[in-house]
Amino acid sequence: MSKDTTVGFVGLGIMGLPMAENLLEAGYPVAGYNRSPEAVEQFVDAGGDAGDSPQDVAANSEVVITCLPDSPDVETAVIGEGKGDGADAPVIAGVSEGMTLIDMSTISPTSTERIADELAARGVAMLDAPISGGEEGAIEGTLSIMVGGDEGVLDAHRDLLEVLGGSITHCGPTGAGQVTKACNQIVVAATNLAVSEALVFAEKAGADLEAVVEAISGGAAGCWTLDNRAPRMIRGNFEPGFFAEYQYKDLRIATDAGEAYGSPMPATELTHEMYKAMVENGMEFDDNSGVMQVIEMLAGTEARIGETEGGGERGD
């Protein structure tokens, strides 16, 4: 895809903003929209053009990327409730035949299919391309991108996506990207919970937490969470790379899909309840690794070394 292609970006949040900034740095003209003005100001400072609405962004772009929190947010921004007006005017009101929408949110596969059908009726292609890698991956451009939709459409936009991700995988037809992301979130959340249990157990048993992390990271238990989160967890640092509230939402999508497809999910259901406990106890804006705090509450202890280092505060 030519660097002259104008990219529309709807959703300049914790993930979307650094992604849009990476596109700007790569030389793409980018028009962006976000409901909160602070993110838009930062985007404009980085060289982006502010759009007045999702419709305005689409009308001034050749491809539109959305990166929003949940299924209703994407449906509203793309196809609209009553089609909207002003700042609420949706993407679909500004598209033209031959455009492509790439949804990089994590949403329901059924919502994806409904949005894709509405766009197809306007001659607009859609890729569902949810991402994994957290804020770090968004900043560094190393996200894992799981893509559903026509493979030819993906190939036409691969150069664009390579600015954002280090791994781009075609997973199948429309909705397959979202199914794959649900699989990813099942593993991520269950791993967070397992690491949390292990660390609290180690604390209760009087073991050296740093030594435990180092030892098990080098064996069969080695994983991303042990390498990238456990050293922060045992210092009480739950500054968000991925909000617990979003993890809770993603697990709801997974369990709902499991119900729809008749797939047993005993571990995922339990993990979902643990993230519900985070949200209900005011931890929704902590990192998803903060699920350890729920285990600590149950155990009546904290698995910590030294003094707590920032980021453990509850979000407002």
Write up what this structure looks like.
This protein is an alpha/beta fold and 316 residues long. It folds into two domains: 7-173, NAD(P)-binding Rossmann-like Domain (Rossmann fold); 180-299, N-(1-d-carboxylethyl)-l-norvaline Dehydrogenase, domain 2. The protein has helices at residues 16-25, 37-45, 54-59, 71-78, 109-120, 134-140, 151-164, 176-204, 209-217, 224-228, 230-233, 244-261, 266-280, 292-299, and strands spanning 7-10, 30-33, 49-50, 63-66, 100-103, 125-128, 131-132, 143-148, 165-172. The strands form two sheets. A six-stranded parallel β-sheet has the order 3-2-1-4-5-6, with helices on both faces. Strands 7-8-9 form a three-stranded mixed β-sheet. Helix 8 crosses helix 13 and helix 12 (244-261) runs antiparallel to helix 13. The radius of gyration is 20 Å and the shape is elongated. The model is unreliable at 308-316 (pLDDT under 50).
Q: Given this structure, which CATH class of the largest domain is correct?
A: Alpha Beta
The major sheet is characterized as: 6 strands, parallel
Number of H- or I-type helical stretches: 14
Helix content: 40-55%
Summed up, the domain count is 2
- Portion of residues in beta strands equals 5-15%
In sequence order, what are the helices and strands, one letter per element? EHEHEHEHEHEEHEHEHHHHHHH
CATH architecture of the largest domain: 3-Layer(aba) Sandwich
Structural class: alpha/beta
CATH topology of the largest domain: Rossmann fold
Low-confidence stretches: 308-316
Mean pLDDT: 93
Approximate shape: elongated
Let me know the CATH homologous superfamily of the largest domain: NAD(P)-binding Rossmann-like Domain
Spatial separation of the terminal alpha carbons: 41 Å
Q: Indicate the radius of gyration in whole angstroms.
A: 20 Å
How is the largest sheet built, in terms of strand order?
3-2-1-4-5-6
Total beta-strand segments = 9
